[in-house]
Write a structure and sequence with these properties.
- By secondary structure, this protein is mainly β.
- The protein is built from six helices and 20 strands.
- The chain has helices at about 5-15, 20-25, 75, 80-85, 280, 360-365, and strands spanning about 90-95, 100-115, 120-125, 135-140, 140-150, 155-160, 180-185, 190-195, 210-215, 225-235, 270, 285, 290-300, 305-310, 315-320, 330, 330-335, 340-345, 350-355, 370-374.
- Strand 15 (about 315-320) and strand 16 (about 330) form a beta hairpin.
- About 10% of the residues lie in helices and about 35% in strands.
- Mean pLDDT is about 80; it is low at about 1-55 and about 240-260.
Length: about 375
């Protein structure tokens, strides 16, 4: 299947409706966002099924679009809404030198999740989460991560930022049932990525072993309403038979391209924090004139670019977050795979404002949400 054919198929699945068509229907949505789902520690369930939720009502005009049914976060064991504002500072103590020590434990497991209604995905997950926990430290803190591999595949961990080669991924893989400790100082300040690193990358990384760690500058940024967003995509099974609900296996079949890497050819579902259209069904509440800071990470595989576009305001864009001065002001940012940026903005007027991928096909397949400003 060529890329051209893949795009036509995806647009067909999206009901043939582009971003402009979707936007024209958003006024019919409820203006009152519902509260976030309760958190759930459920990680092992006998079955994964579509569950009703307390999400906002969806206009009838959305019925023809894919993935608009409700998913109870208890099914996946994590809530995309809670992921927006939960930052893991680790177990904090002091080293004899007086340096702050932050300790974390990561456990990799096989886990089947729903990325859209009726669309199970056989994932690999850190601590049962896709993406993994969002770590937070201050520049100069010492980070100690104990990685335990309870999946069925050998993995290592790779961290962006500055550190010794001995703690980088691929130097030594961790076999199933084994563990390894990674230690490094958090530097420089900015927005960093961690991920599993095992060959072949094309058929490994996209399964869910990725996450973010934020390194704050010594002098904190101005106070803001802070949100974490991962842009990700998912390849479903090629034969129409997705992973068995409730299965612990991450070895379900995927469609393969004819390329040299014999990897998947394209994504079938796009999302922010893993679940398609979650923030259409559950708009994000924002206060008028409140400074908003979004930590944005692109881990979408099989596409050369992803993007973030917001209506009704402009973004101060800090690429990689390693400077306290914005690189540009725009309402759209393009990110290649693995790139990150910190976005700062506010809304001057109450109302509902759309955010989405500027690539219409990605928006048609799950990457769109709403800021509900009051």
């Amino acid at each position: 299947m060529t890329k051209r054919n893949c795009l036509s198929r995806r647009i067909f699945l999206g009901g043939g409706i582009g971003v402009a068509g979707l936007a024209s229907n958003l006024l019919a949505l409820s203006a009152d966002p519902k509260g976030a789902y309760a958190s759930s520690a459920i990680s092992n369930m006998s079955a994964i099924t579509d569950m009703p939720s307390n999400a906002s009502s969806i206009a009838a005009s959305f019925a023809g679009l894919p993935f608009m049914g409700a998913i109870d976060p208890k099914v996946n064991g994590f809530d995309p809404m809670e992921m927006l504002t939960v930052f893991d500072v680790g177990k904090v103590s002091k080293l004899p030198s007086g340096q702050t020590l932050r300790e974390y434990t990561f456990t990799a497991i096989n886990k089947t999740i729903l990325v859209a209604p009726g669309k199970p995905f056989a994932a690999l997950a850190y601590n049962g989460l896709v993406p993994g926990p969002t770590l937070r430290a201050t520049q100069g803190d010492h980070i100690r991560i104990t990685f335990i591999n309870k999946s069925d595949t050998a993995h290592s961990m790779h961290f962006t930022g500055i550190h010794a080669g001995s703690v980088d991924g691929l130097i030594e893989s961790v076999a199933p049932g084994m563990q390894m400790v990674y230690e490094f100082d958090a530097q420089p300040f900015g927005l960093h990525l961690y991920q599993g690193f095992t060959m072949p990358l094309a058929t490994h990384m996209f399964k869910g072993l990725y996450g973010t760690f934020i390194v704050d500058p010594p002098q904190p940024r101005p106070q803001a309403f802070e949100l974490f967003m991962t842009l990700n995509g998912f390849v479903l099974a090629s034969d129409g038979q997705n992973a068995k609900p409730g299965s612990s296996s991450a070895t379900s079949s995927i469609k393969l391209s004819q390329g040299a890497n014999n990897g998947p050819d394209s994504n079938d579902v796009y999302a922010v924090n893993t679940v398609a259209y979650h923030f259409i069904k559950n708009p994000i509440a924002i206060a008028v004139n409140k400074l908003v800071r979004v930590y944005l990470v692109n881990v979408t595989e099989f596409d050369s670019l992803n993007s973030f576009h917001v209506h009704g305001t402009l973004l101060n864009i800090y690429r990689s977050g390693t400077s306290l001065q914005p690189n540009e002001v725009n309402n759209t940012i393009m990110l290649a795979p693995g790139q990150r940026a910190i976005l700062e903005f506010s809304f001057k007027t109450a109302g509902q404002y759309i955010f989405h991928a500027y690539q219409g096909e990605y928006a048609d397949l799950g990457y769109m949400g709403i800021f509900n400003v009051k």
